Sequence to fold (508 residues):
Amino acid sequence: MNKQHLFFSLALVIFGGYLGFTNCGTTSIMQNNDPGMQDQAFDPRSALEVPLDIKNRRESLDPASAEEQAGGDSGQIATLVTQIETGHDHTCIVDFMGKVRCFGYNGSGQLGLGDIENRGDESGEMGSNLPVVDLGTGMKATQIAAGADHTCALLENQKVKCWGDNTSGQLGLGDTIRRGGIPGQMGDNLPFVNLGGEQKVIQISAGYHFTCALLENHKVKCWGYNGSGILGLGDTQTRGTQASHMGSNLPFVDLGSEGIVTQISSGNIHTCALIKPDLDASGKVKCWGYNGVGQLGLGDTVHRGNQISQMGSNLPFVNLGSLSNMVTKVDTDGNTTCVIVAGKVKCWGFNGSGQLGLEDTDTRGDQVSDMGNNLPFAPIVGGNDYLVRDIDAGINHVCAIVELFGSVHVKCWGFNGSGQLGLGDTDDRGDQAGEMGKLLPSVDLGTSYEPIQISAGKNHSCVLIQTQGTEIKCWGKADKGQIGTNNTYNKGDDANEMGTMLPFIVFM
Fold:
């Protein structure tokens, strides 16, 4: 696996280094008058070997102390999670052994446990009682991607397995049979997605009812629902519902010949790609699919990808003005797109809850005058002396990890009906003046913990935190167990629920 363009920066943080700009994504579905449907997003993680001292420390941990930690923020156990991924109403993690665990909503088998029972909403379902997803004999995951109601894993052999809802062929198995909801469908019985020949995958991204893969040759293939040209194939024909759709018959997405694709992110019903001149450079962004609220950033509301003439060199790069070629990450969800550009954040698309962070509810990207140098940075802290390490867009809210004067913070803005901003209330942020910049509080995660990856779902958020190892905390809506607290009480919507009162999620 080519480690240069995987999620190497997370591994560097785990082992004491510096976190760069790459990371993961998330999912969601339409809510709060959002005119689209849903999203998910991205996160390749490193396949670097875990150093021996980390392995020894992990093996010496006492599982009993983990159970004690479930009731509070004791920080006495290091779980060594390497990726957190939020879907519509479910959440998945990958640990340093390549094991996958999922919790939350399971109505389509998206947890991959051979049933349709939710996990995390009742006592006794988490910790050692939460099963590992059976990926097959000897299979280890390097990345997980969660869509609305389906989940995909990128494995060490650089192949992909998907399970959950399959209404539109989003599992890529040549049928519409959902997987993971009954016994006998997982493990060795779950086929690899056939992408043709010996194609090797380096990143996956799951949208509402579709999935995309970035291959080792830096080309992209997408399958599943194709309304508005989401798959970028010049038509609106669904792919993946028949065996003849997949393999070498599944075309590459034509993104032109200017640079190489190094990252993809699948939103509600649109997708964006980060395109660089080489692996070590920053890059530019192209987006395609549904564009009803300007989420493609092209200054209009014309969908792209449903006609051949719209793709390739005819698909414009997003105009970010003088910073157009300085993007280091793109993330999409709902009908919003955000980028880290020159170490700051710019967002465009739907803005009904202030998720663009511009202290209004005006859509951006549907008019030419919205983009280029006219598109402001989202003022997520006061002043300019900060660096955005990571960003993830949820359905109607966005979260970022920000380094400010040597300390690292989580900032969230947008819709907050379930406390998904983690600010101890249900007030939206970013939709009116006086809510952003220095007036936007940081999420209280507890004392002396450094966040290293963020993931925003439909109505919940999760963060990967460096402690003795790497562990996670989640907050927001809990009706289906998606924040893993063994109950259905929302967290983050009232005072005294965050900080040390918000427990780490235990997986052993």
